[in-house]
Specification:
three-stranded antiparallel beta sheet; 43% helix; alpha/beta; 2 domains
Length: 278
């Protein structure tokens, strides 16, 4: 049975790649199988073979499936100690550059991109910064671009912001607005103007800009070793000499092919620094 399921998964992922050019073939299989089971239950499909048939013939079914295959769990200032380290240790270095470029890889619905924009604003650096926030999920990117979040989430955002060493009130960066699903928080357009949201796949696309800081947090854990190495190579290629890389709390460069290109900078917070280019 396991062998049959593995075959069905492999055929489904190949079909998705051939039909839609989304490459999930190097995602960690245990997590992928769990997400596919959830998708089958939600879409009322009895088997992965049945899901494959629908995906091939119904683009709207693939759009629904994509919401299960991509990571969409995030909070503003998630892991506040990470943002405190960016604030106190990384930004003072980046402040020495005339302009600053940041790449948020796997940005989902935009929480981390807005968090970094707020940090840069508080440290007086946003005016000379640009944030590239990328993901493969078009629906998530649209939500990120809108910058609208449920007011129910604001208490957690506010507390995380405070613990990051905030110098202002989080309420300075949004306004409340009524909507069809209740009141929502809309992020300050001044933050939104400094963020470019765009489609980019760590599995198939190449580097698109030279940047000073890359954050890719809680994304690599869903990749197998080969795809992790590919993504880390992209980050190393994108970073300027002595640029910074931030990973998630359960992620590390240890045992990766990219380890020799970086030095540990703030290891507890999973922040690394690109070695000087020769």
């Amino acid at each position: 049975m396991d062998a049959e399921i593995d075959l069905e998964v492999r055929l489904l992922l190949e079909a998705i790649y051939d039909r839609y050019h989304y490459d999930f073939r190097s995602y960690a299989k245990a997590s992928l199988k769990r997400r596919l089971r959830q998708a089958c239950d939600s879409l009322g499909v009895a088997s992965l073979s049945g899901l494959q048939e629908r995906v091939l013939h119904e683009p709207e079914c693939f759009a629904a499936l994509l919401q299960y295959l991509t990571v969409q769990v995030s909070d503003m200032f998630r892991d506040p100690e990470f943002f405190r380290a960016i604030r106190t240790q990384v930004l003072p270095v980046l402040a020495t550059y005339p302009s600053i470029k940041v790449w948020v890889a796997g940005c989902s619905t935009g929480e981390e991109a807005y968090s970094l924009a707020i940090l840069l604003q508080e440290e007086g650096l946003l005016d000379r910064s640009i944030i590239y926030a990328t993901d493969i999920n078009a629906q998530a990117l649209r939500a990120a671009g809108n910058g609208v979040y449920s007011l129910q989430r604001l208490r957690g955002f506010t507390e995380n912001h405070r613990r990051s060493g905030a110098t202002t009130s989080f309420s300075d960066y949004y306004h409340a607005s009524p909507g069809a699903s209740g009141e929502s928080a809309i992020m300050d357009p001044a933050l939104r103007r400094k963020i470019t949201f765009s489609d980019h796949s760590l599995a198939t696309d190449n580097v698109f800009s030279e940047v000073h800081l890359v954050t890719c947090r809680n994304v690599l854990i869903y990749f197998d070793q080969e795809l992790q190495n590919r993504a880390l190579r992209l980050f190393g290629d994108a970073l300027i000499s002595r640029g910074f890389l931030g990973l998630g709390s359960k992620e590390s460069l240890r045992f990766s092919e990219a380890a020799e290109r970086f030095t540990e900078f703030a290891l507890h917070e999973r922040i690394y620094r690109r070695k000087g280019l020769t």
